[in-house]
């Protein structure tokens, strides 16, 4: 205790964070880094595997439909007009020609962006193994040789050049469709991307390969050194117990960490920003989640999951430009060519914002034809304030439809969230029922997504908290995190629309979004690092040998407990 009173925070982080790896998986990206780092490595969560089969799709993700239905199109146009009236811009059917929109004119507000911003151009990935194998490739080959010796074979093309067997991250997204690779995305819309075409076993194998590559190539942690490291899993609130259990197995069994602990993103965000009570709004690439935290404890009945995010804003941006015939005659296909999504995401981050009036600019779009160098096209972009408004009017964002995992995927016969220690077999207590039965989201009832806008979700979440004093505090302590949280003008838009969404019968007249202490993209990861460093007792940590031998033992006092029940053990140190 004397040590804790005298230690400098930076020294504590350096000493306890050097062998602590924080892993924050998301649908589009995974953030991995040592706790002592300021920011993690942020890597696209995908892998491309070489294939010798002809006719296979370049992207493994299987869509039920990729076309907008007539009713969805009508709803989207109606949502655009509603947004246009709020932003004071022309309706969709008022002016559809290039000349009527006067797109050649760039107003003074946007003029600086023309000279200061340079749109990024991407190049196709070199899929050939020209250089000597790296540490990551050598380690991966040695570690997995017994399991995949029959399939992980180097393939030659006609020129006798070796194809790379696996390609990860952004490089995987920049592979040409003509190259013999299939791109896998193990997490989709906040869940494991399990489907009839993508088995649960393959999903787990891809997660192992991606995370192992980051550990070897970015953090340079060899397999022989892993037993000296512990891992903190910061999991999205969308994950179900079965998925969390699989992640623990991956970290402890396959990646060989000595111990691990699990925290939810909402709780980690609180620690990342040094708060105790707040409404956490996490806006990722494919999902948005809302949850309220009181004194470092999640309130389970306040959780909301929205099935849209930054990727949908990108596709909405493309739809608007094509509607006004501003987009060049390019074969831009974000579903079949991930490199096009990279381009659109760059345009969204650079130019989209929320403010009244016309928001227009000149930007550079690139055409990426099969294997050919990128070709630049100057284009006039308009209505750039409409796509991010889709967060409040989801009908603007028409998500692609994916098959749901089979119902058996959610059945966990070794229910890891069953609090057997709280059972009274003599007939008292909860009569031997898992405590999860008292909550709406149980392992047998997967968490449901809600088809409402962001303002309604925040309002509904906070009003579910119960006490009026707590509600007032939460409405004045809203935190926006995730990549979408960087959108210019979003803070004032959230404050205004949440205030209007509060029923007039509620005695609440103040809504405030608190500024983030760091990049909103990494707040949850940073909070996981703080939790791991300050958790001196490590009572909730699971050791590798225990997990491998027994999993979660019935009657054991040392078992994984969801963040709903995790108390902030070291909360008193948060502002030190």
From TrEMBL:
InterPro entries: Actin, ATPase_NBD
Pfam families xref list: Actin
CDD domains in the record: ASKHA_NBD_Arp8-like
Superkingdom classification of source: Eukaryota
The family this protein is said to belong to: Belongs to the actin family.
Record's protein name: Actin-related protein 9
Organism encoding this protein: Brassica carinata (Ethiopian mustard)
Lineage, opening ranks: Eukaryota, Viridiplantae, Streptophyta, Embryophyta, Tracheophyta
């Amino acid at each position: 205790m004397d040590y804790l009173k005298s230690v400098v925070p930076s020294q504590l982080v350096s000493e306890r964070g050097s062998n602590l790896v924080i892993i924050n998986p998301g649908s589009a990206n995974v953030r991995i880094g040592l706790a002592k780092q300021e920011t993690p490595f942020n890597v696209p969560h995908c892998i491309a595997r070489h294939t010798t089969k002809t006719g296979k799709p370049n992207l493994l993700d299987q869509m039920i439909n990729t076309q907008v239905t007539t009713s969805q199109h009508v709803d989207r146009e109606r949502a655009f007009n509603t947004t246009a009236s709020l932003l004071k811009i022309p309706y969709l059917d008022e002016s559809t020609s290039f000349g009527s929109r006067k797109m050649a004119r760039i107003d003074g507000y946007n003029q600086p962006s023309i000279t200061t911003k340079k749109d990024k151009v991407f190049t196709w990935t070199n899929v050939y193994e020209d250089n000597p194998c790296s540490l990551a490739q050598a380690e991966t080959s040695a570690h997995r040789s017994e399991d995949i010796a029959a399939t992980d074979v180097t393939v030659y093309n006609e020129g006798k050049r070796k194809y790379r067997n696996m390609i990860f991250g952004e490089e995987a997204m920049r592979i040409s469709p003509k190259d013999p690779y299939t791109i896998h995305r193990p997490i989709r819309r906040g869940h494991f991307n399990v489907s009839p075409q993508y088995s649960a076993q393959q999903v787990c194998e891809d997660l192992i390969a991606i995370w192992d590559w980051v550990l070897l190539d970015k953090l340079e942690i060899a397999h022989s050194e892993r037993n000296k490291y512990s891992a903190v899993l910061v999991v999205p609130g969308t994950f179900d117990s079965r998925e969390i259990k699989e992640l623990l197995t991956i970290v402890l069994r396959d990646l060989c960490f000595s111990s691990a602990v699990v925290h939810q993103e909402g709780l980690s965000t609180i620690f990342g920003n040094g708060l105790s009570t707040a409404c956490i709004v996490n806006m990722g690439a494919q999902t948005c989640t809302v949850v309220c935290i009181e004194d470092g404890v999640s309130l389970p009945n306040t959780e909301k999951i929205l099935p849209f995010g930054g990727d949908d804003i990108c596709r909405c941006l493309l739809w608007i430009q094509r509607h006004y015939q501003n987009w060049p005659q390019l074969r831009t296909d974000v579903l079949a060519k991930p490199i096009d999504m990279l381009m659109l995401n760059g345009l969204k981050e650079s130019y989209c914002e929320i403010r009244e009036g016309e928001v227009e600019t000149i930007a550079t779009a690139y055409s990426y034809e099969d294997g050919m160098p990128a070709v630049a096209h100057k284009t006039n972009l308009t209505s750039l304030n409409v796509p991010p408004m889709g967060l409040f009017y989801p009908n603007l964002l028409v998500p692609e439809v994916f098959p749901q995992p089979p119902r058996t995927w959610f059945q966990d016969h070794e229910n890891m969230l069953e609090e057997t220690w709280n059972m009274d077999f003599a007939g008292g207590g909860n009569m031997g029922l898992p405590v999860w039965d008292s909550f709406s989201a149980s392992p047998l009832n997967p968490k449901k997504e809600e088809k409402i806008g962001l303002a309604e979700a925040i309002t509904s979440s906070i009003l579910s908290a119960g006490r009026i004093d707590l509600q007032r505090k939460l409405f004045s302590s809203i935190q926006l995190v995730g990549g979408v949280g960087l959108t210019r003008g979003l803070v004032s838009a959230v404050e205004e629309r949440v205030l209007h969404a509060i029923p007039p019968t509620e005695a609440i007249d103040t809504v405030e979004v608190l500024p983030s202490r760091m990049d909103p993209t990494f707040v949850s990861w940073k909070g996981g690092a703080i939790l791991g460093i300050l958790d001196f007792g490590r009572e909730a940590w699971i050791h590798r040998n225990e997990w491998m031998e027994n999993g979660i033992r019935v009657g054991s006092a040392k078992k994984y407990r969801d963040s709903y029940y995790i108390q902030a053990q070291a909360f008193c140190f948060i502002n030190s």
